[in-house]
Amino acid sequence: MSELLNFNYPPEPAVDRVTLFADVILPLPLPKLYTYRIPFEMNDEVLVGARVIVQFGAKRVLSCIVADIHENAPADYQAKYILDVLDDKPIVTAPQLKLFRWIADYYMCTIGEVINAALPSALKLSSESRIQLHPHFNPEEDDIPLASQEVKIIYALQQNPALTFTEIGNLLQVKSYHKYIKSLIQKEAIIIFEQVSDRFSPKVVKKIRLTEHFVQEEGMLEELFNQLATKPKQLDILLNYLQKVPVHQNIHLNAAGIEKSALANNPHLSKSSIDSLIKKGVLEQFDQIISRFPVDNTVPLQPMKLSEHQEQAKDEILGLFKEKDTVLLHGVTGSGKTEVYIDLIKHALEAGGQVLYLLPEIALTAQIVTRLMKVFGDKLGIYHSKFSDNERAEVWQGVLSGRFQMVVGVRSAVFLPFHNLSLIIVDEEHEPSYKQYDPAPRYNARETALMMAHLQGAKTLLGSATPSIETYYNCKTNRWGLVTMSKRFGEAQLPAIELINVREEQHRKNMHNHFSGKLVTAIEERLARHEQVILFQNRRGYAPFISCDECSWIPKCRNCAVSLSYHKYNNELRCHYCGYHERMPHDCPACGATTLKSMGFGTEKVEDDLKLMLPNAEVQRMDLDTTKKKNSYQQIIADFESGKTNVLIGTQMVTKGLDFENVSLVGILNADSIIHFPDFRAHERAYQLFVQVSGRAGRKGKPGTVLIQTRDPLQPIFRKVHSNDYTSLYEHEIEERMRFGYPPFTRMIRITVKHADEKISENAAIVLAKDLTDQLGAQLVLGPEVPYIFKIRNLFLNEIHVKLPRENVNLRAAKQAIAKVIQQLYLLPDFKGVRVVADVDPA
């Protein structure tokens, strides 16, 4: 390894030939690009957008993206040589590179941080990368020519599940071992992964088929029937297999066999009889690796017909697209926006373009993907963080190659290498989930999608029943187009909304734990009619905190300035900010009393209480705790869709675009906690949440009801929700924001100062605020101030807000001034170790 790191190409002979240099983007938070020299023999191999391997520093080998090729040697340092080329074609397109530069510039981060976030780890190599045998590669059977060094690697991988690049270097003891890794990747003998959790494991199904001689040799099948005549259970297995695989019509069908579960899960067949037939050699069992993006070719692609209102909305959108690049489809919940999206996607694909369909949550993809697969089949790719890294790399390559003409995904899908994009759909465009918080780049996928469309000459359709104030303002000022769908699809009506005064219910002693009597009765009525219920509580866990009845002790996180939430299932106290957890104490550590009491309630307690009150109800919970596994979302949603679950309890996950035809009741358990929040968007967010979760009820013609529990029924926001009056909300909010200088009239940048010492953090923020004021003016700089949660992960926080007016301010120059002030702060000896984070357009 050390020999490789110190290796440099020999001096080139003094002949008259062009010396080329490449500016590369390293996946590191570096402020500038680095320039490397291209060895003459690689002049025709190095391409902009392709990956090359370089040495960075004394001990690191990294893959990076070529951003530019030129003849200018760097003035400040001697350029090292590129070690190798990984791609014969670019894996990052020219529009992508422009987009990545814009993200870095707009969101005040480095392009290296953008590349690091954008590329799946399987496409990033480093000295710490790991390799494993490709699941499809069989060293004993695959006739692939291998060099002697490649054979060594394969043999080592047969003995070890994975090896790091460093271990490969030590194994081969050669200067340029990376060329053997590259060769094995091209031969599809190995694959790369970054972390143990990213290691690729293929999706395998167990299959069975008739042993070959029963199919190939004449008379053997008849003889088998005679042998099994006295074993009716085994005969049933054979008959069922032949019904599914009619080998008497086509003997070649047997080779593919069927999934073992197709017989094993049949309640009328004996599982032990299947195993007996396998032991006898009648059936043979084998494993088959299948794609994680399967398409059921037995189901014909489904045509779809729009209603009159949907057709009208589609025509209006297409008409506006002739003069505007961005259109908002403002349709009430259940109006059939998805069908309009699908029709527009079909038009775009038929014209030869690519389509990106963005969703705010993974939970939505389960339902939407099923619908889209039925329409678009194998043209569809899926991209989200629950996929393994190699699965994401598969989609990346599929978009590049044209295998996937459209992709449905969450915010990170904006990084995919589209090269012929014609339409982007941003569904539920108002959702805060489109904003990335940590780490950098702290981008908003909606805004990034708009720039992506601009760079590729595509159109953008934003969709929402409750648009963000900024989006609606852009429509009202005629910057974007606006199409409205004010009626629900078919015969469905908007749900009836009723407020329940919790104070009065408590006074009448009509509260059952955290359920009003009216809500319990309504749930019982729906269950008796075999209808379904969704309950919304915007807090997970069993209780927000516990407290000692005697001394009022409350357990706090040791890393953050928050109380620990109680999770009953694991019997632990957990911090929702840093993940710290500890066992639930039996007695109070402060006074020794055993009277520890849970305070407040989360989704886990709602589930617990409901199961006690209604033991016959089938209850499931959907929150961050129950959806950690890869397919948890799909399973919970599938159970609810099939009617296996009666009541679905959830956090914000249940508010976003889910479509269940049998839901007739939605209950909002604690509306007040959402309204009273210290944020200028609090009322907007509350309205959006209430309307969105209410929209899950009564979607297929069955009357829907929404019951909202509150201690303050006179709160004005409830009147707007009750009458579905978005216009009134918008007019009130836009007036307030104009008066106090909030978006859309200003651009906001939140600057957070962090340090392990509280005083140093405070002093650094004071100095930074003063310097910013000197540069930008006192009217544009607010703070510093201590945020509501002032300590996270052992770092004390102070915040400064910069408000930049939309008019008469050079945004680029202002950001450059902010960045310069931050860099100057880092140079001050008193503030060594201070970290400053700039968040542009904080959500």
TrEMBL record:
<dbReference type="GO" id="GO:0016887">
    <property type="term" value="F:ATP hydrolysis activity"/>
</dbReference>
<dbReference type="GO" id="GO:0005524">
    <property type="term" value="F:ATP binding"/>
</dbReference>
<dbReference type="GO" id="GO:0006269">
    <property type="term" value="P:DNA replication, synthesis of primer"/>
</dbReference>
<dbReference type="GO" id="GO:0003677">
    <property type="term" value="F:DNA binding"/>
</dbReference>
<dbReference type="GO" id="GO:0043138">
    <property type="term" value="F:3'-5' DNA helicase activity"/>
</dbReference>
<dbReference type="GO" id="GO:0008270">
    <property type="term" value="F:zinc ion binding"/>
</dbReference>
<keyword id="KW-0067">ATP-binding</keyword>
<keyword id="KW-0639">Primosome</keyword>
<keyword id="KW-0347">Helicase</keyword>
<keyword id="KW-0235">DNA replication</keyword>
<dbReference type="Pfam" id="PF18319">
    <property type="entry name" value="Zn_ribbon_PriA"/>
</dbReference>
<feature type="domain" description="Helicase ATP-binding">
    <location>
        <begin position="318"/>
        <end position="485"/>
    </location>
</feature>
<comment type="subunit">
    <text>Component of the replication restart primosome.</text>
</comment>
<keyword id="KW-0547">Nucleotide-binding</keyword>
<feature type="domain" description="Helicase C-terminal">
    <location>
        <begin position="583"/>
        <end position="742"/>
    </location>
</feature>
<comment type="function">
    <text>Initiates the restart of stalled replication forks, which reloads the replicative helicase on sites other than the origin of replication. Recognizes and binds to abandoned replication forks and remodels them to uncover a helicase loading site. Promotes assembly of the primosome at these replication forks.</text>
</comment>
<dbReference type="InterPro" id="IPR001650">
    <property type="entry name" value="Helicase_C-like"/>
</dbReference>
<dbReference type="Pfam" id="PF17764">
    <property type="entry name" value="PriA_3primeBD"/>
</dbReference>
<dbReference type="InterPro" id="IPR042115">
    <property type="entry name" value="PriA_3primeBD_sf"/>
</dbReference>
<dbReference type="Pfam" id="PF00271">
    <property type="entry name" value="Helicase_C"/>
</dbReference>
<keyword id="KW-0862">Zinc</keyword>
<dbReference type="InterPro" id="IPR005259">
    <property type="entry name" value="PriA"/>
</dbReference>
<feature type="binding site">
    <location>
        <position position="557"/>
    </location>
    <ligand>
        <name>Zn(2+) 2</name>
    </ligand>
</feature>
<keyword id="KW-0238">DNA-binding</keyword>
<comment type="similarity">
    <text>Belongs to the helicase family. PriA subfamily.</text>
</comment>
<protein>
    <recommendedName>
        <fullName>Replication restart protein PriA</fullName>
        <ecNumber>5.6.2.4</ecNumber>
    </recommendedName>
</protein>
<dbReference type="GO" id="GO:0006270">
    <property type="term" value="P:DNA replication initiation"/>
</dbReference>
<dbReference type="GO" id="GO:0006310">
    <property type="term" value="P:DNA recombination"/>
</dbReference>
<dbReference type="InterPro" id="IPR014001">
    <property type="entry name" value="Helicase_ATP-bd"/>
</dbReference>
<feature type="binding site">
    <location>
        <position position="575"/>
    </location>
    <ligand>
        <name>Zn(2+) 2</name>
    </ligand>
</feature>
<feature type="binding site">
    <location>
        <position position="548"/>
    </location>
    <ligand>
        <name>Zn(2+) 1</name>
    </ligand>
</feature>
<keyword id="KW-0378">Hydrolase</keyword>
<dbReference type="Pfam" id="PF00270">
    <property type="entry name" value="DEAD"/>
</dbReference>
<feature type="binding site">
    <location>
        <position position="551"/>
    </location>
    <ligand>
        <name>Zn(2+) 1</name>
    </ligand>
</feature>
<dbReference type="InterPro" id="IPR041222">
    <property type="entry name" value="PriA_3primeBD"/>
</dbReference>
<feature type="binding site">
    <location>
        <position position="560"/>
    </location>
    <ligand>
        <name>Zn(2+) 2</name>
    </ligand>
</feature>
<keyword id="KW-0413">Isomerase</keyword>
<dbReference type="Pfam" id="PF18074">
    <property type="entry name" value="PriA_C"/>
</dbReference>
<dbReference type="InterPro" id="IPR011545">
    <property type="entry name" value="DEAD/DEAH_box_helicase_dom"/>
</dbReference>
<dbReference type="GO" id="GO:1990077">
    <property type="term" value="C:primosome complex"/>
</dbReference>
<feature type="binding site">
    <location>
        <position position="591"/>
    </location>
    <ligand>
        <name>Zn(2+) 1</name>
    </ligand>
</feature>
<dbReference type="InterPro" id="IPR041236">
    <property type="entry name" value="PriA_C"/>
</dbReference>
